[in-house]
């Protein structure tokens, strides 16, 4: 998603949301490649995989 910067014409801020953790080798490679094309790269968050959360298949009883 892109947003124009405040006070600077024709310059934009881009927000990227993707699945992966910053310590995964593929994510590190992608971030290195991205840095080559950015004046500034800021990581707003990196969260654990969804594996720690129950999925619909793991819930044994329906909600009351």
Provide structural commentary:
The structure is a single chain. The chain has 64 residues and is of the alpha+beta class. The protein has one helix and two strands; from the N terminus they run ββα. Helices cover 17% and strands 9% of the residues. A two-stranded antiparallel ribbon has the order 1-2. A hairpin with a 7-residue loop joins strand 1 (2-4) and strand 2. The longest helix has 11 residues, at 25-35. The chain is elongated and about 40 Å long.
Search tags:
single chain, 64 residues, alpha+beta, two-stranded antiparallel sheet, 9% strand, elongated
DSSP strand (E) fraction?
Answer: 5-15%
Low-confidence stretches: 52-56
Strand order of the largest sheet: 1-2
* Sheet with the most strands, sense and barrel status: 2 strands, antiparallel
Spatial shape = elongated
First and last CA, distance: 39 Å
Reading the helices and strands in chain order gives: EEH
Q: Please give the share of residues in helix.
A: 10-25%
Number-wise, the strands total: 2
**Average pLDDT score:** 79
Radius of gyration using CA atoms only = 18 Å
Q: Determine the structural class based on helices, strands and strand pairing.
A: alpha+beta
Count of runs of 4 or more consecutive helical residues: 1
Summarize this entry quickly.
By secondary structure, the protein is α+β, with helices and mostly antiparallel strands. 17% of the residues lie in helices and 9% in strands.
Helix/strand layout:
Layout: E1 2-4, E2 12-14, H1 25-35
Antiparallel strand pairs: 1-2
